[in-house]
Every structure is written in C-alpha cells, then in structure tokens.
Amino acid sequence: RFLKDIEDGKYDQYVDLGFTEFPLHNPAMREALGLPDDGIGVLVTRVIAASASDGLLRPGDVVTELDGHKVDSAGMVKIGAETVNLNEISERKFAGDKVTVRFLREGAWNDVEIFLKPVPASRMYSVEYEKKPRYIVFGGLVFQPLDTNLFASAKFDDVTVRRLYTDYMPKGLFQKYRDVVILTRIESDPITSQLGDFTGFAVDKINGVEVTDLKHAYDLLHPEKTPEFHVIELFGANRPVVIPATKAAEAEARIAKAYGITKMENLTD
Q: DSSP code of 10?
C-alpha cells in the first residue's frame, strides 16, 4: 500500500471515512429507528469535523451499505471470503478515492458518494519512529507536544490530558489546537524549586494568551518586550506557574551546562 501511495511523489497517509459508529443489536433500538430485525446497520454517533463525511453524514444516521457491501449490526462487512471491520473499506483505498454509502435518515433512504481524504490531525495517534522530538526548554521547564509516543511513555495521570488526547480528533479539538502542549519536565534549578507538582499538565495560556501549538508557546515565551514574569496557566492546576523572566536565561545556561543540552528548542519534525 505504501509503495502505491507514493507513486505521485508524496505520502498521503491513511484515509478515513471520518465517523464513529455504535452497534445496533438491540431490537427495541432498531424498532425506534425504523429498522427491520435483520441484523443490518450501525448508528452514526459522531462525524469528525473536516473529515470526508463532514456535511454528508450526521449523528443519528444508520449506515447499512458501503460500496455495496452490507454493514452488519456489529459494524462488520464481508469482502470476498473475509469478514472485516467496516473501516477496512476505506483503509484499502487512497486519497481521492470514493466510497458509496447507503444510509437511513429520519425514515428516508439516502445514497451518497464520499471522497476520501486524510485527516492530518490523525497523526496524534500515529506511532512515529526515527524522528527527533519537538520540545522547548525554558527556564528549567520542558514543554512537548502531545502525541502517542509521549502519551505511551509518560503515562499521564491527569484526567484533562487524557481527555485532550482521546477527544483530539473525534471532537474536533485539532481545529483549535494544532498541538496540545504539555509541561513534561521541570529541571532542578533555584527558580523551579517550588514547581515540581506541575509536571504532566497541559498548557492552557501563557501570559494570558491561549496556546495553540508548540511554536506559539515558544513565541509567547520570547516576546519582543520581556515582561517581569511569565505566567503559565495549566489545565486543572490550582495555580499558575510563574517564572521571573529576567532570570530564565540564567537558569537555562545553568541547566544546559548541568545536563549537556546544546539546543534549547526543536520546533520542527
């Protein structure tokens, strides 16, 4: 599949229909939706914003066929001799390919063609290899963008971080946050001596401005006019992190020497 994808000189990644579904085994639910008790159809529960299905399907629709293949009430389709999850239909296709969808909406049958496209935000859930991590070291604070590699290795306990991770694509959070920025480490230094409890929290605001990605965080921490303090608000924390701005550079020099850090940030993949 990979070799076919890059024939045009670029890798489009996997494409997706862009909706989540719920099985329809319950006879009472099927009756309420106007479905016969034939074991066919799944309920659309969410349509991902900016996905291939956005504007074509909506929650409450009942999908019964994909490319002419019956979708059973467990969300499975039969392709040749195989019975596979309905998402296999799109996973065997490429960006620009279409999937014909038959669905029931408010008692009326509909047929649409959905043209597949990748959702860049799905990278949040990709395991990536041989890539340098993006990060910022600022005044002893280490910031990183949330992704599956970080989520798996750090084992975050904070419920907000876990929710931001699980909801990032399904609830369209990627439209607001290109990155979810996490305060992952606090290096030992006099200006960070009282801040150890803040590791593992997601960054909400820096100096009163909502943070949308790692580069944005870097820019907010390095303004043209240096404030007296940098105030970093974290989701779920009971108080902000406050760093004396004029002492941050001194702290970075000490930390760089102590830990052998040669570059205080990497903002690109």
A: S
CATH 2.30.42.10 range(s) for the chain read 2-118
Evaluate the CA torsion angle 63, 66, 69, 75 in order and state its sign. negative
Three-state DSSP at 124 gives helix
pLDDT in tens, the chain (269 residues): 445 555 566 555 678 899 999 999 999 999 999 999 999 999 999 999 889 999 999 999 999 999 999 999 999 999 999 999 999 999 899 989 999 999 999 999 999 999 999 877 777 888 888 788 999 999 999 999 999 999 999 989 899 999 999 999 888 899 999 999 999 999 989 999 888 789 999 999 999 999 999 999 999 999 999 999 999 999 999 999 999 999 999 999 999 999 899 999 999 97
Domain 125-266 has what CATH class? alpha beta
Domain with CATH 3.20.190.20 in the chain: 125-266
| Helix (H/G/I), strand (E/B), else coil: 153 | helix
For 2-118, give the CATH class. mainly beta
Which residue's structure tokens are 């992952």? 184
Beta bridge partners of 232: 206, 241
